[in-house]
């Protein structure tokens, strides 16, 4: 792996963990663990998969940054995080990714969470 690539990966990893500080505590813990697991899992992938991986996580970081800024400006309203996962994007997932998504949803929707996930077309606020 080239030094520039390693630096990009590390910077993105740190940025994601910093952005998670804007999340409610339960969601932050879940998100931090997921980021750590995914980055570990993708350490030795090929160049094409690594590029797609970084692009997806960079897009996630951009959305989370925007939502965190919107939430901080609207401090009187309930914080809103999340995005709709279009069906066409789901169709591109491998079986392993679908399984991971299912596990993540089950963890996120356990009782006593400070947030909820619904099947609507809008993020749950």
From TrEMBL:
Family stated for the protein in its record: Belongs to the complex I LYR family. SDHAF3 subfamily.
Lineage: Eukaryota, Metazoa, Chordata, Craniata, Vertebrata
Keywords: Chaperone, Mitochondrion, Transit peptide
Positions of transmembrane segments: none
Protein's job: Plays an essential role in the assembly of succinate dehydrogenase (SDH), an enzyme complex (also referred to as respiratory complex II) that is a component of both the tricarboxylic acid (TCA) cycle and the mitochondrial electron transport chain, and which couples the oxidation of succinate to fumarate with the reduction of ubiquinone (coenzyme Q) to ubiquinol. Promotes maturation of the iron-sulfur protein subunit of the SDH catalytic dimer, protecting it from the deleterious effects of oxidants. May act together with SDHAF1.
Main location class: mitochondrion
Subunit structure: Interacts with the iron-sulfur protein subunit within the SDH catalytic dimer.
Database matches in InterPro entries: SDHAF3/Sdh7
Protein name: Succinate dehydrogenase assembly factor 3
Organism the protein comes from: Pipistrellus nathusii (Nathusius' pipistrelle)
Compartments where located: Mitochondrion matrix
